[in-house]
Amino acid sequence: MDYKVRGLVIKSTGSSYIIRMDDGTSVECHIKGNFRIRGIRTTNPVAVGDFVQVTLTAESDQTAWITEVEPRRNYIIRRSTNLSKESHILAANIDQVALIVTVNHPVTSTTFIDRFLATCEAYRVRALLIFNKVDLLNEDELAQLAELRSLYESIGYETIEMSAISVQPSDILPLLAGKTTLLSGNSGVGKSTLLNALFGKELTRTGKISDAHDKGMHTTTFSEMYFLSPLEGEPEGVSAVIDTPGIKGFGSVDMEKEEVSHYFREIFRTSTDCRFNNCTHTNEPGCAVIEAVEHGEIALSRYESYLSLLGDCDEAKYR
Ligand SMILES: Nc1nc2c(ncn2[C@@H]2O[C@H](COP(=O)(O)OP(=O)(O)OP(=O)(O)O)[C@@H](O)[C@H]2O)c(=O)[nH]1
Ligand SMILES: [Mg+2]
Ligand SMILES: [Zn+2]
Questions:
Q1: Of all protein residues, whose CA lies closest to atom 23 belonging to ligand 1?
Q2: CATH topology of domain 257-317
Q3: What pLDDT is attached to residue 15?
Q4: Predicted pLDDT of residue 317
Q5: pLDDT (tens digit per residue) in 41-87
Q6: Which residue's alpha carbon is nearest to atom 21 within ligand 1?
Q7: Domain 2-69 classification at class level
Q8: Could you tell me if 13 and 50 are in contact, meaning their C-beta atoms sit under 8 angstroms apart?
Q9: What is the pLDDT of residue 182?
């Protein structure tokens, strides 16, 4: 006889999934080829963080199938920057994103940061910026770090700086307490190193960045959720961290052109002073956003990221 159980997806390899059952045991599951979730077209119909129904067959092969995905509280989708239009769910049912970025070794571009933050805004997921590898930065880079931190703090994002190779778990754990946190960022920025530091042991592999290109080598290939035990004195509640493969670019989510400015908080705030209420902040007379960029009240890097996302929307239209 077949029977059904409920569980949480804690690892996804693309072809199979590890599900943690409500009783704490884990089982490897597959999905049938024709499995689809209505409304979302993605390369992965099931993601880490999803709650699913699993059907176990009591036959000798003991195959477990995911037969149903429960409605998601939220999710973060990444559209690749190439023209394939492929979307990938990074994780589902998360409380926050910790975006790990590095001023150097490797360089995380502000375009990448802003596209990621805009996506978090679009999906209404809180984002925290963690600047890593501060031990490797020279004087100029440290100045750049301070500038970036103050820029993002002024917009309203929480930022911290650290070195994952020497960080004390107690410096980071309060930020994660009682929450499910998605760790994301470019390859080689130190996501897995931070995860290992939090647990005080090597749970997952880390990899050197390439000497030739100063870039990560895509060491982590699967997404996986890890559970932290609560700190002493911290309120109870499960804290979970999802380590994910490094991502290169971040294409626009399915945004309408008019929406893009809503996902750049300071641009949105300023846009109420534009002369036209359908202002795209590109070349209209009386545009308060352009004026604020000219006066240095809105960072040029942020405005450029905004324009690049707008450009993507145009491109998407003609595909
Ligand atoms: N000096 C220094 N090295 C670090 C720090 N954090 C990570 N590294 C090193 O950077 C390299 C890449 O770290 P990983 O943790 O594998 O990076 P990742 O973000 O998980 O990369 P992917 O799995 O490829 O996405 C490793 O050699 C780490 O030891 C840091 O704070 N300081
Ligand atoms: Mg990794
Ligand atoms: Zn405007």
A1: 220
A2: Ribonucleotide Reductase Protein R1; domain 1 (1.10.40)
A3: 82
A4: 60
A5: 778 889 999 999 999 887 656 678 999 999 999 999 887 666 566 78
A6: 188
A7: mainly beta
A8: no
A9: 98
Nearest-atom index, ligand 1, CA of 206: 16
CA–centroid distance, 306 to ligand 3, in Å, is 12
Task: Spell out which residues line ligand 1, taking CB within 6 angstroms.
Answer: 132-133, 135-136, 163-165, 185, 187-193, 206-209, 216, 218-220, 245-246
User: What is the average pLDDT score of the chain?
Assistant: 90
Q: Tens of pLDDT along 179-227?
A: 999 999 999 999 999 999 999 999 999 999 998 888 999 999 999 999 9
Any idea of the CA torsion for 99, 192, 223, 49, to the nearest 10 degrees? -60
Pocket probe for ligand 1: among 108, 133, 183, 206, the residue whose CB has the most ligand atoms within 8 Å is: 206
**Which CB contacts under 8 angstroms, 24+ apart, belong to 206-214?**
209/105, 209/106, 214/104, 214/105, 214/106, 214/107
Write out the CATH class of domain 75-243. alpha beta
If you measure from the C-alpha of residue 211 to the centroid of ligand 1, how many angstroms do you get, rounded to a whole number?
13
Q: What is the rounded distance in angstroms from the CA atom of residue 252 to the CA atom of residue 112? A: 11
Task: Please state the atom number of ligand 1 nearest to the C-alpha of residue 136.
Answer: 1
Q: Where are the domains of the chain?
A: 2-69, 75-243, 257-317
